[in-house]
Design a protein that fits this description.
Blueprint (H helix, E strand, L loop, with lengths): L3 E4 L5 H10 L39 H16 L6 E6 L6 H12 L5 E7 L2 E2 L2 E2 H5 L4 H7 L3 E6 L3 H13 L5 E6 L22 H10 L4
Parallel strand pairs: 1-2, 2-3, 3-7, 6-7
Antiparallel strand pairs: 4-5
Helix pairs in contact: 2-3
The chain binds thiamine diphosphate and magnesium ion.
The site of thiamine diphosphate (TPP) has 18 residues, from strand 4.
């Protein structure tokens, strides 16, 4: 009896776990076990171990496909009003499966589906254009039958307005193209894909927390 969120770019799990913790799904101590062998909090979120994780993800391309399935179930089988939100990576969109999912989303007129594209131009191996250029996104999503909205992905007012517009859009799914900066807020991490999967050392951590205004 609620909306669902699918983190299709499952490797961004630290963010999901932190939010679930803030929302009371997880005790804070559990965050310390992140990516350790016996922890529930694996690098890729597992719905069987962590309550609040609506879909196990990490194999890129599959999350959005599952989200489309959930949206079909809500709209056409259970006929309820719950919405499905899916966060998709721009590098992830180099998976052909993503576009097959999008094609199905518009075929089934999934106006209960809202895909947010994290458009940071980078993926694990560098610039998306140097790997398999997936652009242009706006015309591509439109060609796949989506209503599209472009926003600054770091601006909460724009995010909220886009979600509202998506809720009010009928007969087609919505894609919010969120322009973002990977590592936003930490000068030495911004736009540097070398930080994709590395952890800061103690000095770097302290510097980063200072820049973010933390303790
Ligand atoms: C099917 C699949 N292939 C490869 C990977 C390895 N991988 C993990 S993250 C990543 C890059 C994803 O890029 P993007 O979606 O742009 O996410 P961002 O780096 O911006 O967080 C890749 C290729 C994976 N998790 N799944
Ligand atoms: Mg990216």
């Amino acid at each position: 009896e609620r909306d669902r969120f699918v983190l299709s770019k499952g490797h961004a799990s630290p963010l999901l776990y932190a939010v679930l913790c803030e929302k009371g799904f997880l005790p804070e101590e559990e965050l310390q076990g992140f990516r350790q062998v016996d922890s529930k909090l694996q690098g890729h979120p597992n719905m069987n171990y962590v309550s609040g994780v609506d879909m196990s993800t990490g194999s890129l391309g599959q999350g959005i496909s599952a989200a489309v399935g959930m949206a079909i179930a809500n709209k056409h089988i259970d006929k309820n009003e719950h919405r499905i939100y899916c966060l998709l990576g721009d590098g992830e969109s180099e998976e052909g499966q993503v576009w097959e999912a999008c094609m199905a989303a518009s075929h089934y007129k999934l106006d209960n589906l809202c895909v947010i594209l994290d458009y940071n131009h980078l993926q694990i191996d560098g610039n998306i254009d140097d790997v398999i250029g997936p652009e242009p996104f706006k015309s591509k999503f439109e060609a796949f039958g989506f209503h599209t909205i472009e926003i600054d992905g770091h601006n909460f007012n724009e995010i909220e307005a886009a979600f509202k517009e998506a809720r009010e859009t009928k007969g087609q799914p919505t894609a919010i193209i969120a322009h973002t900066i990977k590592g936003k807020g930490v000068s030495f991490m911004e736009n540097n894909y070398a930080w994709h999967g590395s952890a800061p050392n103690k000095e770097q951590y302290e510097e980063a927390m200072k820049e973010l205004g933390g303790e």
